[in-house]
Design brief:
With 199 residues, the protein is α+β, with helices and mostly antiparallel strands. It folds into 2 domains: 63 residues, Arc Repressor Mutant, subunit A (Orthogonal Bundle); 90 residues, Umud Fragment, subunit A. It is built from 4 helices and 11 strands, in the order αααββββαβββββββ. The chain is globular.
Length: 199
């Protein structure tokens, strides 16, 4: 059964809007953003839709946090991929079939994690290419040198190394042909904890 079959037309539209914001921007919309998008003048009207989506298991919300809307994990059967053995990347070994499964969703199933698709080649020297997926741990702080998703002064999200300096932050690409971004008001959205590539 489709996850949309249990939703009203407006609930489906709100859910798709929330999902797209989280997947493309890295965090969910505020109640105000949802209201403006769908011309819902009352915050209570927006909250009714959010409560319905939460009750139907499609989103989760943390109280007292304006951007704390998150997508709930969708149920799945036979989760994960078969781990069938090892393959040599150095000394040759015999590939022995195993009867295990690797559930990447389980590895990265924390509620405070999300995925972004990489657009561009600013991190290619860190082996992150255009079209790859990065798994992000949602947090507001990072250590110097960590790879983060940061929001710049103009509100755009970027994937870079985080280097706080005296009166600014240097957002350093992993591409020698590109210059760093300097920002006085950049903030961390999350820290990279994994990379997935489909070849």
């Amino acid at each position: 059964m489709s996850i949309y079959s249990q939703l009203t037309k407006r609930q489906k539209e709100v859910y798709i809007f929330i999902r797209d914001k989280i997947q493309n921007r890295g965090y969910g919309p505020t109640v105000r953003e949802i209201g403006e998008k769908f011309k819902i003048s009352s915050p209570n009207g927006v909250m009714c839709h959010l409560k319905a989506l939460e009750k139907k298991g499609l989103i989760t919300r943390e109280p007292n946090m304006s951007r704390a809307i998150q997508l709930a994990v969708e149920p799945a059967q036979d989760k994960g991929l078969h781990l069938v053995g090892q393959v040599a990347a150095g000394v040759m070994h015999e590939a022995i079939e195993q009867n295990e499964r690797v559930d990447f969703g389980e590895m990265f199933s924390k509620k405070n994690m999300f995925v972004l698709r990489v657009n561009g080649d600013s991190m290619i020297e860190a082996h992150i290419d255009d079209g790859d997926y990065v798994i992000i741990k949602r947090q507001r702080t990072a250590n110097s040198g960590e790879m983060v998703v940061a929001e710049t002064d103009n509100g755009e999200a970027t994937l870079k190394y985080w280097h706080p300096e005296k009166n600014r932050v240097r957002l350093q690409p992993a591409n020698r042909s590109m210059s760093p971004i300097y920002s006085r008001n950049a903030r961390v959205t999350g820290v990279v904890v994994g990379v997935v590539r489909k070849v």
